[in-house]
Amino acid sequence: SEPVATTAMPSNTKLGDSTIFHHVAVPGGPMPKPVICFSELIPQDIAAVLRTRWDARHDERAITFHLLKNVYVVGEGLVFDQDLNLIVDSIAQNDAALIQLGFKQLSQGVRESTVPYQRGTTLLCGKIGMSNYGHWLVEMLPIAMLSLYWIERKLWRVFLPTIYSWMKDVITDSLGLLGIGSDDCILGDGGPRRFEELVFVTNLSVHGHFYAPVGVECLRTIGQSIVSGPACPVWVSRVGERRSLESEAALCKALE
Predict the structure, then answer these.
(1) Which of 92, 161, 86 is nearest to 125 (CA)?
(2) Which positions ≥6 away from 8 have C-beta within 8 Å?
């Protein structure tokens, strides 16, 4: 029988140990320091903050693969169980408004019997931040690289829960560099979808605090197939964004 759907905030549930089927060990210690071209251009106060983060040590942990049955995904990767309880491990940086919106969409879809159903085993390769190329490359693409054994053998397909227009080429091209083609992928629009079996990966990253070294390894792997040119300064403007530089509009005009 179908669960009763409401539009209030969902109840929460946690993943149990019975869902775990695979681990990837992450040794403790500092994260690998990046190689930064023109690092002398970084202001000293900012460089000091960066060094503090790079020198921080992290405890040993394990990237964990969970196999979930008869679950729903909505938004950029919110996962609900068959009774529409929200799996807290999927919340990440989703705020209350996004959770309520996702639950409302899912509730309506269940009530109207319009939620698509995906048979077989599917890898969730997405979380909040899919609109940002940096989040994708370090927090989500490595999920696919760690899962190549199953994807290459056509045992799993890859679900990309929300594809924004400005991110589509970044996502499909980077997956392609890992050998994952369009036939291996299911492109979502943020709407709810039900899965017979869903592979859900945890402990790969904690946004702003920890990123497993495998994220850097993934970028190095795909970088080996790209012919690189010489390093040169590039100006990237973020005018109108929350993190714009002081007097950025004037700087942009001066560089035209």
Answers:
(1) 161
(2) 103
SS3 234: coil
- Number of neighbours of residue 237 by Cβ within 10 angstroms: 13
Separation between Cα atoms, residue 126 and residue 164, nearest integer Å: 12
Do 90 and 126 touch, CB atoms closer than 8 A? Answer: no
Residue 232, φ and ψ in degrees, nearest 5: -150, 150
Cα separation, 54 vs 247, in Å, equals: 29
Rounded to 10 degrees, what is the CA torsion of 15, 17, 22, 25? Answer: 90
How far is 226 from 13, CA to CA, in rounded Å? Answer: 43
DSSP-assigned beta bridge partners for residue 123: 158, 199
pTM across the whole model: 0.85
Q: Please list the pLDDT of the chain residue by residue as tens digits (256 residues).
A: 455 555 588 999 999 999 999 999 988 877 667 778 888 888 899 889 888 877 878 788 899 999 999 999 999 999 999 999 999 999 999 999 999 999 999 999 999 999 999 999 999 999 999 999 989 999 999 999 999 999 999 999 999 999 999 999 999 999 999 999 999 999 999 999 999 999 999 999 887 777 888 877 888 888 888 888 887 878 777 766 677 777 887 888 887 7
In whole angstroms, what is the distance from residue 117 CA to residue 84 CA? 15
Buried b (16+ CB within 10 A) or exposed e, 95-110: eeebbebbbbbbbebb
Return the closest-CA partner of residue 200 out of 93, 123, 117: 123
CA distance 183 to 152: 11
